[in-house]
Specification:
single chain, 144 residues, mainly beta, Immunoglobulin-like, six-stranded antiparallel β-sheet, 2 helices, 13% helix
Amino acid sequence: MPAPTPTPPPAPAPAPTGDWRDWPLTPGDWIYRGGVSQFGVPGADATFTMRCDSATHRLELNRAGTVAGNPAMTIITTSLTRALPSHPGHTPSPGMVTTLAARDPLLDAMGYSRGRFIIEQRGLPTLVIPAWPEIERVTEDCRR
């Protein structure tokens, strides 16, 4: 009897097309805990994290997944688009990291973007994240 043929992994989802404001949201919810806002599926590692360093008044943005070459992390909102330098982070979970001053207008653009904002990074899936109050909560807390 021949050995069973393993089932091939599913094909990756095609990249969304058309206006990014109509793309489906990345699955998950926001949660805020003491200077950290996290987006992701409950019970799994966060897909996107915003962490305040209150000593420096800077926010660390960490998206899940790492990629060689440190490509720019591009954040797209309804009012601003910016490519930010990034590097692999190690804690609490691996991901690509960039930092912004707490008063950077990109943070407000993310929080007030019309329903969602996008994070693109070569070699990683595009994230379509809802613009919920947890973004502004961690930003405002970091500005104090």
